[in-house]
Design brief:
Strand order of the largest sheet: 1-2
Radius of gyration: 15 Å
Order of helices and strands: HHHEEHHEE
Helix content: 25-40%
Distance between the termini: 43 Å
Number of helices: 5
Low-confidence stretches: none
Strand content: 15-25%
Mean pLDDT: 91
Shape: globular
Oligomer: single chain
Largest sheet: 2 strands, antiparallel
Length: 120
C-alpha cells in the first residue's frame, strides 16, 4: 500500500476492518520475475474460500458486504463468480480507486459480485 493510496478519498472511506481485508487480499499477491521484470503474477487470481472468510470474520454476511464495498471503492474487482458452480470467487486488484469520487467514476457491472434477488 503506497502513500497515494492511503491518502486517497477511497481509502479514507474504508473502515479499519475493510482496510484490513484489503491488506489480507494483498498478502495473497505473488509474482515471479527475472532480472527485475515481472514475468507472471496472480493479480487477477486472488481467492478467499468461505472457510477462510469465516475464520477472518465469523459472519459471512459482513465479509461479503466488505468485499462489495472494496469493489465499490475501486480496490478490487470480481474476476469470476463461483456461486453458480459452487466454487470459490476469484478477485483481482484494480486501480479504479484513483478516480473514486470523480464525476466519471463508475464500476462496471461485470466487475461486481452478483446479488441474489430475494423473493417473498
Amino acid at each position: 500500500v503506497c502513500d497515494d493510496m492511503m491518502e486517497s478519498a477511497a481509502w479514507k472511506t474504508l473502515e479499519l476492518r475493510q482496510q484490513g481485508l484489503y491488506l489480507h487480499l494483498k498478502a495473497k499477491y505473488t509474482q515471479k520475475g527475472s532480472n527485475g521484470t515481472v514475468i507472471s503474477d496472480n493479480a487477477d487470481n486472488i481467492t478467499i474460500p468461505a472457510s477462510e472468510a469465516a475464520q477472518l470474520y465469523g459472519n459471512l454476511k459482513t465479509f461479503r458486504s466488505d468485499i462489495d464495498f472494496l469493489i465499490e471503492c475501486g480496490f478490487i474487482k470480481m474476476v469470476q463468480y463461483g456461486g453458480n458452480t459452487r466454487t470459490v470467487n476469484i478477485y483481482g486488484f484494480s486501480d479504479r480507486w484513483k478516480k473514486y469520487g470523480s464525476n466519471d467514476y463508475e464500476v462496471p457491472e461485470n466487475e461486481k459480485r452478483p446479488h441474489k434477488i430475494k423473493t417473498i
